[in-house]
């Protein structure tokens, strides 16, 4: 797998260099073709949020073009680590700019924010958030919780974070069998992101999301409390996200 990823990286950089230095259209077309499956893979994760798959693919392709044009060849980074967050970032902007045009009441938006926070809190405590629990904690009806979750389909998009509710994302695919290009790319991205973690933290992440152990079980294995395991997972997610997601001052993951 690592050898395959290295070969892909070398070919990506070769094609980028040819296109950027010579304007080689054939290299550009091949590069677009190589990453189109990844664009489609990301787009499928956003289906059901008010947009058709092919429309999302077109948005993702715009992100891919921006990545091809914006990647800094002078820096020793992998193109896939720049392209992935650029593509998903374009999709997030699309939903942010267009999806809120749907008449979603302000109160519903506020409830959705509270709902996400409460789900995360319950998960950190080692529990599984249910509709009844959420309604009781938030002092709303179960119907309101369900409505908020449905509304979330419009504006709650996947990001590089550990799952706290029903959404699934690239981190949640760690160690899971998948087909074709996505398996290679997800594994490739995760391995790259996990290089910023200590051996202990990397082991904790793998036990939670590859081996599917409970936080309590992980704590017993690494001799820390369940609360410490929760903090390790939160901090690891933040570090991995920071490593992969570009910022205005640092467009490529360091």
The secondary-structure element order is HHHHHHHHHHH
Question: How much helical structure, as a percent, in the residues?
Answer: 55-70%
Report the major sheet. none
Total helical segments: 11
Q: Label the CATH architecture of the domain at 2-100.
A: Up-down Bundle
Radius of gyration: 20 Å
Quote the CATH topology of the domain at 2-100.
Answer: Four Helix Bundle (Hemerythrin (Met), subunit A)
End-to-end separation: 22 Å
- Structural class estimated from helices and strands: mainly alpha
Q: Which ranges are low-confidence, i.e. pLDDT below 50, for 5 or more consecutive residues?
A: 154-186, 246-254
Q: What is the class of the domain at 2-100 in the CATH system?
A: Mainly Alpha
The count of DSSP E runs of length 2 or more, i.e. the number of strands, is 0
- Give the overall pLDDT as a whole number: 75
> Which range does the strand content fall in?
under 5%
Keywords: DNA-binding, Sigma factor, Transcription, Transcription regulation
Pfam family, one: Sigma70_r4
GO molecular function: DNA binding; sigma factor activity
């Amino acid at each position: 797998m690592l050898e395959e990823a290295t070969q892909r990286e070398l070919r990506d950089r070769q094609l980028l260099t040819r296109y950027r230095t010579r304007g080689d259209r054939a290299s550009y077309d091949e590069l677009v073709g190589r990453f189109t499956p990844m664009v489609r893979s990301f787009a499928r994760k956003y289906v059901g949020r008010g947009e058709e798959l092919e429309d999302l693919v077109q948005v993702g392709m715009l992100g891919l073009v921006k990545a091809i044009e914006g990647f800094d060849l002078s820096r020793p980074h992998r193109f896939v680590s720049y392209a992935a967050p650029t593509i998903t970032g374009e999709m997030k902007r699309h939903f942010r700019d267009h999806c809120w045009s749907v008449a979603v009441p302000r109160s519903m938006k506020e409830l959705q924010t509270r709902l996400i926070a409460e789900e995360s809190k319950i998960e950190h405590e080692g529990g599984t958030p249910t509709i009844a629990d959420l309604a009781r904690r938030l002092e709303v009806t179960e119907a309101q919780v369900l409505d908020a979750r449905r509304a979330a389909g419009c504006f709650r998009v996947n990001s590089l974070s550990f799952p706290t509710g029903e959404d699934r994302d690239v981190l949640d695919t760690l160690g899971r069998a998948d087909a074709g290009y996505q398996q290679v790319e997800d594994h490739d991205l995760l391995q790259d992101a996990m290089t910023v973690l200590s051996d202990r933290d990397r082991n904790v992440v793998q036990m939670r999301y590859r081996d599917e152990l409970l936080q309590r079980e992980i704590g017993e294995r690494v001799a820390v409390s369940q609360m410490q395991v929760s903090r390790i997972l939160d901090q690891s997610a933040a570090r991995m996200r920071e490593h992969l997601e570009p910022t205005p001052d640092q467009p490529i993951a360091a």
